[in-house]
Amino acid sequence: MGRTRVIGVIIVVIGLFSLIALGLNTSSRAHSALTFSPVDILTNAPWHLGTLTLLTFWTNVILGLIMIGVGLEVLWRQPGVG
Fold it and tell me: Which of 6, 11, 50, 77 minimizes the number of CB atoms within 10 Å of its CB?
Protein backbone atom coordinates (compact mmCIF):
# COMPACT_ATOMS: atom_id res chain seq x y z
CA MET A 1 0.00 0.00 0.00
CA GLY A 2 1.42 3.34 -1.04
CA ARG A 3 1.88 6.41 1.10
CA THR A 4 -1.02 8.23 -0.57
CA ARG A 5 -3.44 5.41 0.26
CA VAL A 6 -2.25 5.32 3.87
CA ILE A 7 -2.82 9.06 4.19
CA GLY A 8 -6.31 8.70 2.69
CA VAL A 9 -7.18 5.87 5.09
CA ILE A 10 -5.90 7.88 8.07
CA ILE A 11 -8.01 10.89 7.06
CA VAL A 12 -11.12 8.69 6.71
CA VAL A 13 -10.49 7.07 10.12
CA ILE A 14 -10.05 10.46 11.81
CA GLY A 15 -13.22 11.67 10.07
CA LEU A 16 -15.17 8.64 11.28
CA PHE A 17 -13.87 9.16 14.81
CA SER A 18 -14.87 12.83 14.69
CA LEU A 19 -18.29 11.97 13.32
CA ILE A 20 -19.07 9.17 15.78
CA ALA A 21 -17.24 10.09 18.99
CA LEU A 22 -17.37 13.86 18.83
CA GLY A 23 -20.49 14.44 16.73
CA LEU A 24 -23.08 11.78 17.34
CA ASN A 25 -22.24 11.42 21.05
CA THR A 26 -22.79 15.13 21.71
CA SER A 27 -26.01 16.57 23.02
CA SER A 28 -27.95 18.21 20.20
CA ARG A 29 -28.45 21.32 22.36
CA ALA A 30 -24.79 21.84 23.32
CA HIS A 31 -23.11 25.04 22.17
CA SER A 32 -19.47 25.94 21.71
CA ALA A 33 -18.31 29.52 22.06
CA LEU A 34 -15.20 30.95 20.43
CA THR A 35 -14.20 34.38 21.69
CA PHE A 36 -11.94 36.64 19.67
CA SER A 37 -10.09 38.95 22.05
CA PRO A 38 -7.02 40.99 21.23
CA VAL A 39 -4.00 39.99 23.29
CA ASP A 40 -2.42 43.45 23.09
CA ILE A 41 -2.78 44.61 26.71
CA LEU A 42 -0.34 47.56 26.57
CA THR A 43 -1.98 49.60 23.81
CA ASN A 44 -5.60 48.69 24.60
CA ALA A 45 -6.57 47.49 21.12
CA PRO A 46 -9.43 49.56 19.65
CA TRP A 47 -11.27 46.58 18.19
CA HIS A 48 -13.00 43.60 19.66
CA LEU A 49 -14.76 40.86 17.76
CA GLY A 50 -17.76 39.26 19.38
CA THR A 51 -18.20 35.68 20.46
CA LEU A 52 -18.90 33.10 17.76
CA THR A 53 -21.37 30.53 19.12
CA LEU A 54 -21.95 27.31 17.18
CA LEU A 55 -24.04 24.22 17.77
CA THR A 56 -21.47 21.63 18.78
CA PHE A 57 -23.42 18.67 17.39
CA TRP A 58 -23.81 20.02 13.86
CA THR A 59 -20.31 21.52 13.75
CA ASN A 60 -18.71 18.17 14.61
CA VAL A 61 -20.97 16.22 12.24
CA ILE A 62 -20.26 18.56 9.32
CA LEU A 63 -16.50 18.62 9.97
CA GLY A 64 -16.44 14.82 10.29
CA LEU A 65 -18.28 14.44 6.97
CA ILE A 66 -15.88 16.89 5.31
CA MET A 67 -12.88 14.90 6.59
CA ILE A 68 -14.39 11.64 5.34
CA GLY A 69 -15.03 13.26 1.95
CA VAL A 70 -11.47 14.56 1.70
CA GLY A 71 -10.06 11.15 2.66
CA LEU A 72 -12.22 9.39 0.06
CA GLU A 73 -11.16 11.93 -2.55
CA VAL A 74 -7.50 11.22 -1.75
CA LEU A 75 -8.14 7.47 -2.05
CA TRP A 76 -10.02 7.90 -5.32
CA ARG A 77 -7.72 10.36 -7.12
CA GLN A 78 -4.40 9.43 -5.49
CA PRO A 79 -2.66 12.74 -6.20
CA GLY A 80 1.05 12.52 -6.83
CA VAL A 81 0.87 8.90 -8.01
CA GLY A 82 1.71 8.03 -11.59
Answer: 50
